[in-house]
Amino acid sequence: MTVTWEELGWERVAAGVGRVRLPGWDCTAGLVVGAGAVLMIDAGSSLAEGARLRTWAEELTGSRVTHLALTHPHFDHVFGAAAFAGAEVFGAVGVDTVPAEELRADAVRNGLDETAATEAADALVRPRHLVSGEWTLDLGGGRQVLLANLGPGHTAHDLAVLVPGSPGTVFCGDLVEESGAPQAGPDAVPSRWPAALDRLLELGGENALYVPGHGAVVDAAFVRAQRDALAARFGVSR
Fold first, then answer.
1. Distance CA 65, CA 180 (A)
2. CA-wise closest residue to 79 among 101, 56, 55
3. Using one digit for the tens of pLDDT, what is the confidence trace for 120-138?
4. Distances, alpha carbon 178 to alpha carbons 26, 160, 212, in Å
5. Which of 7, 70, 149, 214 is most buried when burial is the number of CB atoms within 10 A of its CB?
6. Is 224:39 a contact under the CB 8 Å cutoff?
7. Is the pLDDT of residue 238 over 80?
8. Mean pLDDT, rounded, for 11-27
9. Phi-psi region of 62 (alpha: psi -120 to 50; beta: other; left: phi over 0)
């Protein structure tokens, strides 16, 4: 790598794995580096933010982003996707059905500049690869990454990314939030959310590091406590 994670304001989570907390909505983007490929996890809230992520990734790895995984269809996670030209884009089945105008309107309601929101909506990238169960990506050098469709929960189309290692790293999207209470908007499926977190814990295990869509990296105990809090909040029994 030409620069360190820390020099660019990123957090190194494990060998070849890092993440950055973006300003504005405190949204996380992740990066996983293989021997012959580079995976970005989520793309930021605008075309400009996506371009910054692309530039950072190139400075960190010396190569372009080859794969992009979108954890769920909310503007702060997907509106920068068009900046990653040539990348193979992955998402949960159904993520491609969410109307661009719906995302644009939500972005404006949440404070994104209207021009930036319109530009991003007009350029919205739909995933070419739709994950219905699990999908293994080979990034080269013995590094394999597992994409898992765990929704519905925070949305109807939630994708988690497991990076094996010691410890493993799980990028949770907004199935897990640390910097505030989990947000259950009109597209959430609260009755299924606790079960999605059960599957997330099964995927990562007790010793993994869990990277929320917003906030600091957490452990399995935090995810379990959030699962129980959501079950109590929405009256979901085991």
1. 30
2. 101
3. 999 999 999 999 999 999 9
4. 10, 16, 6
5. 70
6. no
7. no
8. 96
9. left
For residue 150 the two structure tokens come to 């765990």
Q: Which residue in this structure is represented by tokens 């499926």?
A: 189
Question: Does 1 score more than 70 pLDDT?
Answer: no
- Separation between Cα atoms, residue 79 and residue 197, nearest integer Å: 25
* pLDDT tens, position by position, 41-60: 999 999 999 999 999 999 99
Cβ neighbours of 132 (radius 10 Å): 9
Closest CA to 186 of 124, 77, 80, 98: 98
Residue among 212, 195, 169, 204 nearest 72 (CA): 212
The string of DSSP letters for 126-191 reads PPSEEESSEEEEEEETTEEEEEEE--SSSSSS-EEEEE-SSS-EEEEEEEEESSSSPP--TT--TT
Token pair for 51: 């371009």
pTM above threshold 0.90: yes
- Total residue length of the chain: 238
Return the amino acid letter for 186: P
Taking each helix axis from N to C terminus, what angle separates 114-122 and 100-109, rounded to the nearest 10 degrees?
Answer: 160
